[in-house]
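Researcher: I'm preparing a figure for a lab meeting and need a structural model of a single chain. I don't have an experimental structure, so a prediction will have to do for now. The sequence is pasted below. Please return the structure as C-alpha cells so I can convert it later.
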Amino acid sequence: MDGRSLEWKQLLPSPVRFLVHGGSDWLRDQLTAIEPAPDAAPVLMLWEPQENHLENVDEYRAFVAIRSRGLNLAALRTRGFRDIRRYAAFPSLQDCRWFIPLDSPRVAAVAFAIYTPYKRAARIKQTAVRTAARSGLPGWYRDEIIVAQRAFSPLQDLATPNVGSRNSLHFVISTGTPGPTRKPTIAVLDDHGTHRGIIRVGESDIQRSLIANEAAMLRMLAEVRGLQGHVPSLLAHVDDGTRLITLQSVVSGKPAPANLTTSHHELLSRLQLPSRKPALSTAFMEALPDRVQSASADIQPIARAALRRSQSLLDSLEVSPTINHGDFAPWNLRVTRASIAAFDWEYGLIDGLPLLDEIHHQFQTDFLLHGATMRQVLNRLRVQRVTRHHGYTHNHLLGLQTTYALHHLVQRRELGYHRSDTLTTRLLEVLTALGAEETSA
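Model: Understood. Here is the structure written out cell by cell.
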C-alpha cells in the first residue's frame, strides 16, 4: 500500500502512536508499522465503532472512527473532544484520492471543484459527484471517517492567523499521485466554500526537499518585479521536527487551456532576466555534469552521451538567465483576466534556460492528455527546430531539446522513479531519437 489511506493523519499532532481495534488487515498493518516516538500522542482508531466503544476513549489525545455513520458526535464533545471532523474517503478508503469534508453539502461540493480534470470522461464524473455531494445524500461515498481531537488540529493553528477564523475553516485533503514523490496537498475552504489557502506537507526526505525548494522559490519570486498575481505567496513555513509544512495563498482563476497561448508566453517572458550570459555558464548547466556523474548506472551511457551533445550544441549560445518553473503544465496553471498564473513551484530553478518550460508543457500535454505517439512528439520537436522557434538556430534548439530531456531523465531517477516508469522510458526514447537526428544532420 502507498499510504494514501492514512493521509487523514495530517490533521493530528505529530508524532502519534496508534492503538487499533478492528478493521482490515491492510489498514491495521499500515497503522501499526508507524514507529512511535517516545513522546508520541496516543490515538485510538476504531473500525465500525458502536456507542459502547466510546467508553474507552478518555485516555486518548485523539480518536479516529472509520465507517462510523450514525456515531453520536455530541457524545464525543461531552468527553472533551473539541475538534471533530467528518470526511468521505473518495472513491474509497483503500484507493483514496481525496478526503472530502462532510461539514456541509456546499463545502463537499466545492471541494471537488479544486481538482481540474482535462479529459472529457473525468469532467463528466466530477460533475456527477459534485451534484450528488451538493444534494447532501450519502450515496456518493462509501467510507466515512471521523477524526476527533481534544485540541484543535495543527493545520487549523497554522491556517487561522493567515486565512480565517478557527471555527470556519475546512480542509480538503488530496492524497497525491502514487509514486516516489507522492505527498498530500490540503486545500483550506471557509464556510462559503471559498478557497482560502493551500497547505503542503512533507515527511520523507524527498517530500521535505521538494517542499523546502518550493518555499525558497516563493520567497525569491516575491522579490521579482512583475510577478505579483502570477505566483502564490508563502504565508507560513513550519518544521515540527517530523513534518515540513507550508501554507501559501491561492492562485485564483479558471483552469488553463491545454495548448500554449500568448498569455503563456507572456508569463514565461516575465521569468527571463534582462541580462545575458553564455548558456553553459548558467547554474543549471554548470550543475548538470555532476548530476549526470551521480546518475544511476542504468542510464549513465545515454546520459553521458546526451550531456556531450548538449554542451557542444549550446556552446555558442547566449541566453537571458531564466527562472524555470520545472513542471509548467496545464494542471499547475490558472487563467484570470487573460493572464496566466502558475503554482506548484517545487521543481523550480532560479538560473535556468529559456524554452525548457515550454518544451515541458508540450511534452506533458502530448503524452498525458492527447495520447500522442512518439513519432508525433518527435515531429513536433522537429517542426520547432525547422521554424527557428523564437529566433534560435536549428542547433541551439536541438541542444535545448536535448538538455530538457536529459534534465528530466536524470531528475526522475534522482527522485526514485524506476527505469521502466512510463515517462522515464519515453525520455530515453526522445534522447535516443535526438541523438540520431544530430548524427544524421
